[in-house]
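2024-03-11 09:14:02 DEBUG pipeline.ingest accepted 1 chain
2024-03-11 09:14:02 DEBUG pipeline.ingest length=329
2024-03-11 09:14:03 DEBUG pipeline.predict start
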Amino acid sequence: MYNRSMKILVINFGGIGDEIFFLPTIISLKKEFPDAKITLALEPRSKSVKDLTDKIDNLFLIDIKGKNKYFELLKLVLLAWNGHFDIVISSGGNKLISILLFLTGIKKRYGYDTGKLSRILFTKAVPLNKNQYACAMYHDLISPITDFKTDLPEINVEPQEKIPNSVLIHPGVSKMSVQKGMTKTISAKIWAETIELLIKQGKHVILAGGPDDEEVIEIIRTNVSGFDDYYGKTKNLKDLAVLIGKAEKFICSDSAPLHIGVAMKTKTYPIFGPTDDKKLIPQSDLVVPIKANDNCPIKPCLWEYRQTTCENLDCLKISAEDIVKIVCD
């Protein structure tokens, strides 16, 4: 049905976490079509995902969050025309995606079923099931063209020798989520208290963070000492993956490093508040969500009922003692 050395365009807009979720889909495509050339169209902010994998041959950087959204989409259409692709696969539940893919001129088009138009314009419109782990949701897109199933993200980082008794802390979340009014982690004060308690428990604590985390890192540095400070020493996602791989345990926020922890098979403890852990982590003994024992009637609310978090944030009233008890249990 398909030429194994074909050219495939996959489109997935979102943050780094979304691109890591999408990796199993790309990996299964490579298993089905080992000689295929795969181009990923994504937002510029997420281009570093290519540091983690050799399954992506080329990137199209499409800044759909910028001021010139429609120009960027036109650029994507022109790039697709010039690329002479055999297949295009796109995530996203917008009803206009089927039109966008039709305009690319690519003969074989796959996306989610968003109504009658998608069923007409797509080669196959795939049911969108949001009530599952995000990797599985994306992977459904290629169910019409392969029987291969890759369940978890896989990245090009070898297993690391563990640092004895170590706990890695990565407290940050993206600035974009903060600017949009999405609070998804505990305060810097609680992170500092957690580190202090872990050190008292005799743990070898390592602190890491990205460029967006400078403010929280400085507060932690001001309030506690005695940890290994790796902030600024991980220059890219692959460096961070190596460090996560060396840790016996990893505590983080609901953010991209969580998904690297999953890929590295490090015992990971993500802080969860307003988002749905069942959709964002796999069912695995290696991933233990830390959640508040609150009675919010609409939890998890973010993206389900609201686009921003509430002012009360009872779902993030998690103490350092609670975190350490779970991690050291």
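2024-03-11 09:14:41 DEBUG pipeline.report The chain has a mean pLDDT of 95.
2024-03-11 09:14:41 DEBUG pipeline.predict end
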